[in-house]
Amino acid sequence: MNVVTDVQVPAAAMDSPRMLVERYGLAPAGARPSFPRYLGELWARRHFIVSYTKASNAATYSRSLLGQLWQVLTPLLNAGVYYLVFGILLRTSRGVHNYICFLIIGVFVFHFMTHAMNMASKAVQSNLNLIRTLKFPRSSLPLGTTTQCVQHFLFSCVVLVPVALLTGEHPAAMWLLVLRTIVLCVTFALGLSMVVARIGAKIPDTTQILPFVLRTWLFFSGVFYNVDKVANRHGALVQYVMHLNPGAVYIDLMRSSILHLHPYYKYDWVAGVGWAVVALAFGLVFFWQAEEDYGRG
Q1: Confidence of residue 75 (pLDDT cuts 50, 70, 90)
Q2: How buried is 17 (Cβ within 10 angstroms: 0-12 exposed, 13-18 middle, 19+ buried)?
Q3: Are 168 and 98 in contact (CB under 8 A)?
Q4: Residue 114: in which H helix or E strand, if any?
Q5: How far apart are CA 53 and CA 61, in angstroms?
């Protein structure tokens, strides 16, 4: 004789997977969070970013005799080469006040920006094991490499003080504007690093192509010549483009803050703030949009 009993099935068990997702607010593993939440997660990982930066910085110079002195020696040696070639042989120093300090400022600022982008281009590809093992905002990686470059840049800025004094400059209130210039330059470099990091994650050959792009940018940024003198030989459009080139803008801001005879242009500050805000906003959003894809494939 068969006995039939009624079995009570919980209502939740009869729900479809889609209904369960909606009811409990579930999300796919590794799903990209909303942008505000993403920024919150990035801030929560600030200690990880600091530790990552320190470890990377220590590893970079662990096998060299001079250690972290190379943070300053590298741009100084570059400045020496540029001085021999452009200052003495090609005489771009003619008519430029305090050309030695003028040149070193340009080299330090431009070296920081390009070094930050070069490191960011391989920030994702060099940490695939970390990405596939741990869950964290992937923008922590280019942020960490840029922070490492900021440390080098700050050391260089400290060196600028004795260089300026030894080449005839005198301390002035304008020197305080150096801090504002550093903030703008760092903000711009961080935004650009986010863009380069995403491109480098998708196109491994970016690390091979980027040096040529940055070298071209170098020659248009007035690192070893006066932008005003060169731009004035050309039409209005060329002058406009050369003066608004962000590389030239941040170099000019630093020079006008330290060199007392270097011309000061108010539009440089407007352009500097504009480039910094646009670069950071675009860079963060651009990198965040591919958050789910890093480390896959």
Answers
A1: confident
A2: exposed
A3: yes
A4: helix 99-120
A5: 13
pTM: 0.84
Three-state SS for 19?
helix
* pLDDT confidence of residue 247: 94
Q: Which H or E run contains 238? A: helix 236-244
Q: What share of the chain is helix, strand, coil (3-state, %, to 5)?
A: 70, 0, 30
Looking at this protein, which amino acid is placed at residue 180?
A: R
Q: 144, 53 in Cβ contact below 8 A?
A: yes
* 45, two tokens: 């990982």
Structure tokens at 120: 């960011």
Instruction: Give yes or no for a contact between 210 and 121, defined as CB atoms under 8 angstroms apart.
Output: yes
Confidence of residue 180 (pLDDT cuts 50, 70, 90): very high
Q: What is the rounded CA–CA span in Å between residue 103 and residue 71?
A: 17
Instruction: Using alpha carbons, list the distances in angstroms from residue 147 to 51, 54, 163, 265.
Output: 11, 9, 25, 29
The answer to whether 159 and 70 have CB atoms below 8 angstroms apart is: no
Structure tokens at 25: 């607010």
How far is the CA of 10 from the CAs of 7, 13, 103, 136, in angstroms?
10, 5, 76, 37
Closest CA to 33 of 289, 296, 293: 289
Q: In terms of C-beta density within 10 A (0-12 exposed, 13-18 middle, 19 or more buried), how is residue 197 classed?
A: buried
Residue 201's alpha-carbon distances to 18, 42, 125, in angstroms, are 33, 19, 6
For residues 235 and 237, give the distance between their C-alpha atoms in angstroms, rounded to a whole number: 6
Buried-exposed string 134-159: b where 16+ CB fall within 10 A, e elsewhere: eebbbbbbbbbbbbbbbebbeebbeb
